[in-house]
Write a structure and sequence with these properties.
- This protein is α/β, with parallel strands linked by helices.
- The chain has one domain: Metallo-dependent phosphatases (Purple Acid Phosphatase, chain A, domain 2, 4-Layer Sandwich).
Length: 179
């Protein structure tokens, strides 16, 4: 399967639409959303193109193809609107024998790893994308499609056959790492 992984949408419909266009164009099979879907958060400015209702509509059309976890800006009221589960702090995805730990990053991250072995920890939260090896685990920070930090551009990733690829919002590949 080909997975598209995105985090920290923060209510910005134009950014999400670009990601969904990539998803369709690249024939992805599953959309993994790692938190902070609708709310822009109290520490952020209001994003251009904020449209929580539009995001709900766009994602609910794809509900059967979505795996999601809760971010620190997500609330129960968001779950009431979305037609896919998104209130878990993490999920374990096993694909072709590789264990991927999907989380938002505010609880588990490269400094606070989950117990047990995973091949990759995948998260966002810091809005700083990263693909690096830490001991025997691949660290995959998706960055943010709405509020990138540290001078970074908006980013998301794909995963297929043991390979993570980081992309800019306009679909340019930045880096690849194999588990």
């Amino acid at each position: 399967m080909k997975y598209l992984l995105v985090s920290d949408i923060h209510g910005c419909l134009p950014a999400l639409e670009k990601v969904l266009q990539f998803y369709d164009r690249e024939h992805c099979d599953m959309l993994c959303i790692l938190g902070d879907i609708l709310n822009y958060g109290p520490r952020n400015s209001i994003p251009e193109g904020i449209d929580a209702k539009g995001i709900v509509e766009a994602l609910n059309k794809r509900a059967n193809d979505i795996i999601a976890v809760r971010g620190n800006c997500d609330a129960e009221v968001d779950q009431m609107l979305l037609k896919f589960p998104m209130m878990g702090d993490y999920t374990l995805l096993v694909d072709e024998g590789h264990k991927l730990f999907l989380t938002h990053g505010h609880i588990y991250n490269k400094e606070k790893m989950p117990q047990g072995h995973v091949d990759a920890i995948v998260y966002g939260h810091t809005h700083l994308w990263e693909l690096s090896q830490q001991d025997d685990t691949l660290v995959c920070n998706l960055g943010s499609i709405t509020f990138p930090k540290g001078g970074n551009v908006p980013t998301f990733m794909t995963y297929e056959h043991g390979v993570f690829t980081a992309y800019t919002l306009d679909g340019k590949a930045l880096k690849q790492e194999r588990i």
